[in-house]
Design brief:
Structural class of chain B: alpha+beta
Strand content of chain A: 15-25%
CATH class of the largest domain in chain A: Alpha Beta
CATH architecture of chain B: 3-Layer(aba) Sandwich
Largest sheet of chain A: 12 strands, mixed
Distance between the termini of chain B: 23 Å
Radius of gyration of chain B: 18 Å
Shape of chain B: globular
Number of strands of chain A: 17
Number of strands of chain B: 9
Oligomer: heterodimer
Structural class of chain A: alpha/beta
Largest interface: A-B, 67 and 64 residues
Order of helices and strands of chain B: EEHHHEHHHEHEHEEHHEE
CATH superfamily of chain B: Thiolase/Chalcone synthase
Helix content of chain B: 25-40%
Order of helices and strands of chain A: EEHEEHHEHHEHEHEEEHEHEHHEEEEE
CATH topology of chain B: Peroxisomal Thiolase, Chain A, domain 1
CATH architecture of the largest domain in chain A: 3-Layer(aba) Sandwich
Number of helices of chain B: 10
CATH superfamily of the largest domain in chain A: Thiolase/Chalcone synthase
Number of domains of chain A: 2
Radius of gyration of chain A: 20 Å
Helix content of chain A: 25-40%
Distance between the termini of chain A: 17 Å
CATH topology of the largest domain in chain A: Peroxisomal Thiolase, Chain A, domain 1
């Protein structure tokens, strides 16, 4: 595999705005989930980002205004991301930088508002609703490309909750093929009633803040997040010597399908095992090389049980694992980029975060589930994401040399 | 970057398979107005066959047809599924539900609303464990997905199943996003030029001018103009007429150039 490195990164979620804030949140065990007041009929807890409602995107891009693009814009403005991309763009040329985004619902909240604002008896949506620049899947990469001034190939991956994890694989394919020199990889998924009501209808929302891997876990808390990474070939250009917590190498990836059910994971974990196994093979690493796994760990009975058995099948109880969704909530299509940034933080700080809110590990679990933080230096860490439709992706990140 | 088109599937309202579509493209047949409804795809489990929405039928029917022409087993092929609108029928239903008091939505509509539902059903139908990616990029879904599929075939050095589909969006959402005539197309793509039909793809800087459309029959011209999946029709027209051709597809600030070549037989 072409050696790929992450040379800039940022993430925003209920955990905080940017890498440092996220890192502090992981170290201080701050409670970040709050009761769902996003909708009048809300129940359970959500991971809401502060300040989205007030955020103003640049006037020349006002046509893209929607909650999802505001969230994306807040992330782009953090961690010096725009400036680092500018430097890369000056080196490669803006047309050599691709934008590969993952999202499950894009700016659908704008459509929800437009439906509610219709005149009774008239199906027409208000003129202020602009489908293409908000709800459409292309809205996010077009916004990000315009905001960053890059013009390489655009792509939106919508693989449900594995969207932005899978986006890294597609970006790696594009860079390796030579079609581009670098890619902005990441995604955004923002709070909307469709997902809050949808998961409620499936009876998957916990009345408590999500407790991944806990014996008494009873569902998810939905969250919102946006994040971006600048992915490029190693040694392609001189890099500043600064050490930033987002820096990492992408050393392996694997994708698979369950081929089992639309909304329930295959309880045998066969699909998840395949994705992790393929990532290890791709990275030419033995299972024992992995020092930490950031689990998909949604907090549902079915997902966490399946994932524990899949991890145990490959790694035994040797590898410390945790889910960080007790902090961020399940940020759906954006969970991949958020948790990839968390993996980069783990590689740089050696601080392995525990499962927030969880007090007693499910007694049937056999993996090394972290309920308290641990300090341990890892050369390689893994990030898992699984989604509706039985879609699985695993990434392996390595420490930046 | 060269790929071989090993097999083709093509379905739509009144367009029941690639042989029929070829005849229509050659002006030898017309759209079958009596068979507008799409049949249930046989590769889905029985209970899913009945319930499968139009968009799932579209995707699965053309994918099935392409796979039947090759010795590949469907469960051995990684898939690239592409659609601009996804399931507009379901999205409209959910958006309507959210305006009702309480705003409750149907659980099965919700899990079928994900953009990757057709790929999910395809993988379930074949018990496939291969990678599957679902993409969308509005009116540029075809160049984005075709380039991605060709790159994946090359980088992973294996054949892939490419499938593009879009259908009309009903309700209020349809007033904001016009799409005409359900249409889908699938290719099995193999890296390199090693068969009768090869396609060279080059991603080029600058907008580039879209190739003027060939003299398509009226119904096909309408699909080309008003269905993002229908942008593949000029390519299918050249294949149906056994002609080589070059096409330019606008792709953001750039364009994708396609060169179709028939091997000398």
């Amino acid at each position: 595999m072409t050696e790929l490195i992450i040379t800039a990164g940022t993430a925003i979620s209920a955990m905080g705005r940017g890498i440092e804030a996220t890192q502090r949140c992981l170290q201080n065990k701050q409670h970040t989930l709050q009761p769902d007041q996003f909708q009048p009929t809300g129940h359970g807890y959500i991971g809401r980002v502060v300040g989205v409602e007030e955020h103003v995107i640049p006037p020349h891009l006002a046509q893209f205004d929607c909650r999802n693009n505001r969230l994306a814009d807040m992330a782009l403005m953090t961690d010096g991301f725009i400036e680092t991309v500018k430097t890369a763009s000056a080196h490669y040329g803006p047309h050599r930088i691709a934008v590969i985004m993952g999202t499950s619902t894009s700016g659908i909240l704008s459509a929800e508002e437009a439906y509610a604002a219709r005149t009774p008896g008239d199906p027409t949506l208000p003129k202020s609703f602009h489908y293409t620049n908000t709800q459409d899947l292309s809205s996010l990469p077009r916004y990000v490309a315009a905001r960053l001034g890059v013009s390489g190939p655009l792509l939106t991956i919508s693989n449900a909750c594995a969207s932005s994890t899978r986006a890294f694989i597609d970006a790696a394919h594009l860079i390796t093929s030579g079609v581009c020199d670098a890619a902005i990889v990441g995604g955004a998924d923002s709070l909307c009633r469709m997902t809050l009501q949808g998961f409620t209808s499936l009876e998957l929302i916990s009345p408590h803040p999500a407790r991944p891997c806990d014996a008494e876990r009873d569902g998810i808390s939905i969250g919102e997040a946006a994040g971006f990474a600048l992915l490029e070939r190693a040694n392609a250009r001189p890099l500043p010597l600064e050490t930033s917590s987002y820096r990492a190498r992408l050393v392996g990836y694997g994708a698979s399908s369950d081929g089992y059910h639309m909304s329930s994971p295959d309880p045998t974990g066969a699909g998840a095992i395949r994705a992790m196994q393929r990532a290890l093979e791709h990275a030419h690493l033995p299972a024992k090389a992995i020092g930490y796994i950031n689990m998909h760990g949604t907090g549902t009975r079915a997902n966490d049980k399946m994932e524990d058995s899949a991890i145990y099948a490959l790694f035994g109880s040797r590898v410390p694992c945790s889910s960080t969704k007790g902090w961020s909530g399940h940020t759906l299509g954006a969970s991949g980029i958020l948790e990839t940034m968390i993996c980069a933080i783990v590689l740089n700080t050696h601080h392995l975060p525990p499962c927030m809110n969880s007090h007693t590990t499910d007694p049937t679990f056999r993996s090394d589930i972290l309920l308290t933080a641990r300090h341990s230096r890892s050369d390689y860490v893994m990030n898992n994401a699984f989604g509706f439709g039985g879609t699985n992706s695993s990434l392996i990140l390595g420490r930046f040399a | 970057m060269i790929v071989t088109i090993e097999a083709i599937g093509c379905w739509g309202e009144g367009l029941h398979g690639w042989p029929t579509v070829q005849n229509i493209l050659r002006g030898e047949a017309s759209l079958c107005a009596e068979s507008l409804k799409l049949p249930a795809p046989t590769s889905l489990p029985m209970n899913e066959q009945r319930r499968a929405s139009q968009i799932i039928r579209l995707a699965v029917l053309c994918a099935e047809e392409a796979c039947q022409q090759t010795p590949y087993k469907p469960e051995d092929l990684p898939v690239i599924f592409a659609s601009s609108n996804g399931d507009g029928f379901i999205i409209n239903r959910i958006l309507e539900s959210l305006t009702t008091p309480g705003g409750a939505v149907s659980p099965s509509l919700f899990h079928n609303s994900v953009h990757n539902a057709p790929a999910g059903y395809w993988m379930i139908g074949h018990h496939s464990h291969q990678p599957a990616v679902s993409l969308g990029l509005h009116d540029e879904t075809l160049p984005a997905a075709l380039l991605k599929a060709a790159i994946e075939a090359h980088i992973e050095q294996r054949s892939v199943l490419f499938c593009i589909y879009d259908a009309p969006v009903p309700g209020s959402l349809g007033t904001a996003r016009r799409t005409d005539h359900a249409f889908s197309c699938a290719f099995i793509l193999t890296p390199g030029a090693n068969g009768a039909l090869s396609l060279t793809l080059s991603f080029q800087e600058g907008k580039g001018e879209a190739t003027p459309p060939p003299p398509l029959p009226d119904v096909m011209m309408n699909i080309l103009r008003h269905n993002p999946a229908g942008h593949v029709l000029p390519l299918l027209y050249a294949i149906a007429h056994k002609r080589d051709c070059t096409l330019t597809l606008p792709y953001g600030a750039n364009h994708l150039r396609l060169a179709l070549a028939h091997a000398n037989s």
